[in-house]
Specification:
This is Methyltransferase type 11 domain-containing protein. By secondary structure, this protein is α/β, with parallel strands linked by helices. The chain is built from 10 helices and 8 strands.
């Protein structure tokens, strides 16, 4: 397992860096981020993605299922220092009072963990104000580490590409043979059940009346700059136009969408 996955403060700073340098400019290609804007992050984890918005004077709300992650986010974001910060440990669909509240919703490296994507795409735009936008960022399922196997404790398995694409019984057997703990195996198998492709994402967006305002596919994920010292690179356009094949090369997909009926 990579150190950043157990060092919350380090991971917080890495996320804040990537969001400031790459996610914010991508979003601002559609809508300027200004003080007072209300921002929601679904699956906020330790809160690193929210820091650049806080520093720009936005009012931010982070929602995450993990109580420990929310507690850590509270320490790192410090709502006492930043009164515009609200952190909630809950399922997003249980906080109905937030509906209709936000100018921007951030869903970064989360959607591939959500089992009920029908419910997600059907309902999530209800949290937007009129004219609001949603950022979706996720790894294409078929890319080398689309199974999130980098969380494995085994150094070999955490660096082994594509083996998440094996049949479920083989994948599970390799994880167990590699000495992975039961919880890790269950999490990785859950991700295998929830993985998303570019095509399936776009089908959901069309089905539930979202308008794609902007999209970008990366061959080298922008977050890899601070993780591995690699310069981000966009996916070659001709590969990016080939359905299904592009998923094997796309380490990160960025979308900005809006409610097509608003």
């Amino acid at each position: 397992m990579q150190e950043r996955h157990v060092d919350g403060e380090r991971y917080f700073k890495e996320l804040a860096y990537s969001t400031e340098k790459y996610l914010l400019p991508f979003m601002e290609g559609v809508r300027k981020v200004v003080p007072g804007m209300k921002v929601l992050e679904i699956g906020c984890g330790v809160g690193g993605n929210l820091l650049p918005f806080v520093e720009r004077g936005c009012r931010v709300t982070g929602v995450d299922l993990g109580k420990e992650r929310i507690a850590q986010a509270a320490r790192l974001l410090d709502p006492a220092r930043y009164p515009g910060v609200e952190l909630i440990a809950a399922d997003i669909f249980t906080v109905a009072h937030l509906k209709g509240s936000f100018d921007l919703i951030l869903v970064h490296d989360v959607i591939e963990h959500i089992p009920d994507k029908v419910r997600f795409f059907e309902l999530i735009k209800e949290f937007l104000r009129p004219g609001g936008i949603i950022f979706l960022g996720f790894p294409a399922w078929h890319m080398p580490f689309g199974g999130h196997q980098q969380i494995c404790k085994s150094r070999f398995l955490s660096h082994l590409p594509f083996f998440h694409l094996l049949p479920r019984f083989l994948y599970k057997g390799i994880l167990k043979a590699g000495g992975e703990e039961r919880g890790t195996v269950e999490e990785l198998l859950s991700i295998k059940s929830c993985g998303i492709t570019i095509e399936s994402c776009e089908k959901f967006l069309k089905r539930y009346h979202y308008k794609i305002e902007r999209r970008k596919f990366y061959f080298i994920n922008p977050h890899y700059e601070i993780k591995f010292g690699l310069k981000p690179r966009k996916l070659t356009p001709w590969i990016g136009r080939i359905p299904y094949v592009r998923n094997f090369f796309c380490t990160s997909c960025f979308f900005i969408v809006s409610d097509d009926r608003s």
